[in-house]
Amino acid sequence: MEFQQLRYFLAVARTGSFVRAADQLGIAQPSLSQQIQKLERELGISLFDRLGRSLKLTAYGLSLQASAERILREAEEARTAIEGLKSEDAGELRVGVIPTVLPYSLVKPLAEFQRCYPKIELSLTEAMTDDLIELLRRGELDLAILALPIRHSEIVCSELFREPLLAAVPLHHELAQAEKILLPMLGLEKMLLLREGHCLRAEVLTVCSKAKAQFHQVFESDHLESILRMVAEGYGVSLIPEKATTGRSDCRFLPFEPHAVRRIAYAMAKGHQSLPVRRKLQQFLKGWKW
């Protein structure tokens, strides 16, 4: 049974005539009749009662009619869906972002991307790095934006931008008037950190370890906002991505000498189909002025 045979069968059923059906289909009537006969032989049934010049569907024909309509409708829907996936300006795009990047760095470019390509349905997931990698690996995300390094054999990354890490200290802190500070100058300070699992926590610990800066950890949170409020009230200090400090006047933010930076990248799973809409977002993010 072929799609073409089903289309021919439905045309005859709809018009009640081989001649009219052949005319609508733009084929010779004998060719149409041969295809219907071939279909009947394959199924071992008669689809039409031939009463002189008129045709009437048999019980078998009535049963096939409903199934044939559904099969051809679903085939057309599948073809339309596949054609949609080929488009770079329309379709669904599932993007994951870590919490320390989405509200500070990604809201504006993603909103601009949506304005430029309104037919692309952007679905966002905010989660920690390990969760995003697992979603990428399972094919539940098309692309994720997170911090490097990522050491996973199934994930490939491309750096987007580098962001300074700044010391966040209370306004009345003894270092608040400095222009730049050395990391060891935070030694023995009360350090406020994100909880285990946040990549920013690992980045801060790595930076401090390399600089041999010891500190006393007193608070953990899942939210940078909570940490910044605690710093402002004098509970301790922290290391904060530069973009998270924009517009804040309740803390003093100091650059380090030498600079401490984090690297932000987009990540994809190796071997997964590269859809045009994903490539469109990759190009957009690469061209954005971070």
Structure description:
The structure is a single chain. The chain has 290 residues and is of the alpha/beta class. The chain folds into three domains: 3-86, Orthogonal Bundle (Arc Repressor Mutant, subunit A), CATH 1.10.10.10; 91-159 and 264-287, 3-Layer(aba) Sandwich (D-Maltodextrin-Binding Protein, domain 2); 163-261, 3-Layer(aba) Sandwich (D-Maltodextrin-Binding Protein, domain 2), CATH 3.40.190.290. Helices cover 42% and strands 25% of the residues. It has nine helices and eleven strands. The protein has helices spanning 3-15, 18-25, 29-43, 59-86, 102-116, 129-137, 199-210, 224-232, 276-287, and strands spanning 48-51, 54-57, 91-97, 120-126, 143-148, 155-170, 190-194, 216-221, 238-241, 251-254, 261-269. The strands form three sheets. Strands 3, 4, 5, 6, 9, 10 and 11 form a seven-stranded mixed beta sheet that branches. Strands 1-2 form a two-stranded antiparallel ribbon. A two-stranded parallel ribbon has the order 7-8. A hairpin with a 2-residue loop joins strand 1 and strand 2. Helix 1 (3-15) crosses helix 2, helix 1 crosses helix 4 (59-86) and helix 2 (18-25) crosses helix 3 (29-43). The longest helix is centred in the first third of the chain and has 28 residues, at 59-86. The radius of gyration is 32 Å and the shape is rod-shaped. The two termini are 57 Å apart.
